Amino acid sequence: MNRNMTFQLAESGTTSKSELYDQLAAQLSSLLAGERDLIANAANFSALIFHSLPDLNWAGFYFATDGELVLGPFQGQPACVRIRIGQGVCGTAAAKCATTIVPNVHEFPGHITCDSASYSEIVVPLIKNDEFIGVLDLDSPLLARFDEADAEGLQRLAAILIATIT
Ligand code: SME
Q1: Which of 111, 135, 136 is the pocket-test mutation for ligand 1 (most atoms within 8 Å of CB)?
Q2: Buried b (16+ CB within 10 A) or exposed e, 17-55
Q3: Least buried of 55, 87, 118, 137, by fewest C-beta within 10 Å?
Q4: Cβ–ligand 1 contact at 90 (below 6 Å)
């Protein structure tokens, strides 16, 4: 990306998933370079992946605030604002501090529906200096949209974001 904010989004149609995440990692590093504001960087992160990864209907963040998760920057339909730790897919991933892939959200006990179009979901915890600070959450209208390659790729992208604020 150059500094006048015109840049090419990754072409997802002809590249493998790992190549797509390689491209996204390079674009994200460039996009966030020199900026340390978490909200600004999380907003640009959401926009980049929402418009680059295929088959998403929601992509964004919940941040840990006063012992619960509070909605942060995102792309997609309006979403629930507060999620208790241990509640829903996000709260479960937060409680376990583990990346959580749900192939069919309708089979996940306690799933919180923000967009009825969602069928699968992945949640990646954000850890800064050994402290849990929130989650990255992606929803898809496809069943089983997310796999281990997505988990690895998104963890890599999350690390780029976290590095900007440490
Ligand atoms: N489905 C999530 C809630 C957040 S939305 O998907 C944006 C959950 O069960 O935690």
Answers
A1: 111
A2: beebbebbeebbeebbeeeeebeebbbbbbbbbbebbee
A3: 55
A4: yes
113 phi/psi in degrees, rounded to 5: -85, 115
pLDDT of residue 166: 74
DSSP lists the bridge partners of residue 136 as: 61, 124
pLDDT given for residue 2 in this prediction:
46
Judge if pTM exceeds 0.85: yes
Supply 93's token pair: 């991933």
- 154 contact partners, CB below 8 Å, separation of at least 6: 21, 49, 99, 122, 124, 136, 138
Q: Which residue has the tokens 């491209």?
A: 23
The pLDDT score that the predictor gives to residue 15 is: 80
Cα of 134 vs its chain's centroid, Å: 10
Please write the tens of the pLDDT for every residue from 40-78.
999 999 999 999 999 999 999 999 999 999 999 999 999
Q: Is 18 helix (H, G, I), strand (E, B) or coil?
A: helix
Q: Which residues of the chain have pLDDT under 70?
A: 1-14
Alpha helices in the chain (DSSP H): 17-32, 38-52, 88-96, 148-164
